[in-house]
Amino acid sequence: MRVLISAVGSRGDVAPYTGVGLRLQAAGHHVTIAAHPSYEPMVRAAGLEIHPMPGDLGVLLDLPQRSTPAYQAGRIPRLTTLLHRAGHATYDAAEHADLVLVNGSAPFGYDVAEARGLPSAGLYCQPMTPTAAFPPIVLHSARSWGRRGNRLLGSLGVRAMIPFHRATAELRRELGLPRRPVRDTLARQASERWPILHGHSPAVLPRPADWRPGLDVVGYWWPPETPWEPPAGLAAFLADGPPPVFVGFGSMAGGHGRRLAPLVVAALRYAGVRGVLQAGRAELGVDAPDGLGPDMLAVGAVPHEWLFPRTAAVVHHGGAGTTGATLRGGVPSVPVPVFADQPLWSRRLVELGCAPEVIPFRGLEVSRLAGAVRAAVREPRYRAAAQRMSRAVTGDDGAGAVVELVERFAATGNLRGS
Fold first, then answer.
1. What is the DSSP secondary structure assignment for residue 361, as one 8-state letter?
2. How many CB atoms lie within 10 A of CB 381?
3. Chain centroid to CA 300
4. Which of 13, 49, 98, 118 is the most buried (most CB within 10 A)?
5. Chain centroid to CA 171: how far?
6. Are 287 and 256 in contact (CB under 8 A)?
7. Where are the domains of the chain?
8. Where is the Glycosyltransferase family 28 N-terminal domain (predicted)?
9. 102 sits in which H/E element
């Protein structure tokens, strides 16, 4: 089968689908990933084809030092335009597809499949469907509002995703589809039992009991592992002392590197640990790669599955993929969430016993970070909990569930289970 995966978003919204695509390809299917051009090397390195989407969502994730309401409002038309163009790119890519799979940042993929007369399914790394079990990720907060409050806010939150709905409405009009409010689309998906597989472990966040049929939690989708040798400087640094603490914010905190680097270095030294700072979009440590001192090392891209097991703890933004990678590596976390689903995963790390506390990105300061790092490194219970979770998450076969979904359709023409 010819499978198209529409993967809008940052690196963490694309990388999991390279592992999924590789498994599908090994099962005999042809896979194309529609993604922003900056991720073409990553997609092609997995041996998959890419259909480029215009723009780069990562730019819109960058936050100024002080994010005002006017700034946030100004992002809505830019995000709407980016999503609208991504929708058209997905439509073009679907011309030669038999099946369309879409991530949580590409809800228009359902409409594209309708316009092309193709079956479709969701592959979500984050829980988007309202539930009483936990608060909606659109609130950017892990605070529970109670069962009724969580579900109500979740329903309101889905309807409040203005750029996504505007882009989808315009796309439907241009593709000759009838106008359809978002509530009607959700009702149609529910009546169809439109399948959505969620790529996180049920041991980390179980499937809510109040979700409709067709929504399943199947396990993490790991990026493919490829042979990798560390640079000489990194290998020497790791061998030259006790395991360091890794600090990285992935695609988050763009433009904050100059502020963050001195703060992070001071906190790690106050905690009495060595550090590896990964540049990421924040360019953490890039301005002073030779001025960090012998106890700190700045690095670029390093496979998390290789590095994390060699560290004492990981300070990270709490993204779905990075959270999974810390658990897979059996290493304690200090989560510093920025927005979206990150507070949810961060809070789960604490509830699972794998992290001492959640430090909101806006509240990051030296003494608090130092205290959390010291606890994560020195108190054995956090590593013990992370190692227990490592056994749980590596026992899942998330990619296998996607292969099963696709092959069920290939054999029966039905995407739904029994």
1. G
2. 12
3. 19
4. 13
5. 25
6. no
7. 2-126+161-220+396-412, 232-393
8. 3-56
9. strand 99-102
Cα separation values, 140 from 72, 73, 345, 360, Å: 14, 16, 11, 10
Helix 366-378 crosses helix 257-271 at what angle (to 10 degrees)?
Answer: 50
DSSP 154-172: HHHHHHT-HHHHHHHHHHH
What's the mean pLDDT in 346-372?
Answer: 94
30-35 and 120-124 beta bridge pairing: unpaired
Angle in degrees, CA 129, 132, 135, rounded to 5: 70
Query: Strand 275-278's sheet: what is its strand order?
Result: 296-299, 275-278, 245-247, 313-316, 333-335
In angstroms, the CA 351 to CA 329 distance is: 18
pLDDT in tens, 403-413: 999 999 888 88
Question: Does 2-126+161-220+396-412 carry CATH code 3.40.50.2000?
Answer: yes
Once rounded to an integer, what is the mean pLDDT over residues 120-140?
A: 89
Q: What pLDDT, on a 0 to 100 scale, did the predictor assign at position 262? A: 86
Contact (CB, 8 A) for 200 and 125: yes
Is residue 154 within 8 A of residue 341, CB to CB? The reply is no
Residue 257 pLDDT > 80, yes or no? no
What does the block give as tokens for 336?
């510093």
- DSSP character string of 64-86: -SS--HHHHHHHHHHHHHHHHHH
How many of the other CB atoms lie within 10 Å of CB of 65?
7
- Contact criterion met (CB below 8 Å) for 61 and 251: yes
- Return d(Cα 129, Cα 151) in angstroms, integer: 9
Per-residue pLDDT band for 365 (boundaries 50, 70, 90) equals very high
pLDDT band at 338 (very low <50, low <70, confident <90, very high): confident
Does residue 106 register a pLDDT over 70?
A: yes
Tell the CATH topology of 232-393.
Rossmann fold (3.40.50)
pLDDT at 176 over 90: yes
Contacts with 58 (C-beta within 8 Å, 6 or more apart), sequence order: 10, 11, 36, 38, 251, 254, 281
Q: In this structure, what DSSP letter does residue 229 have? A: -
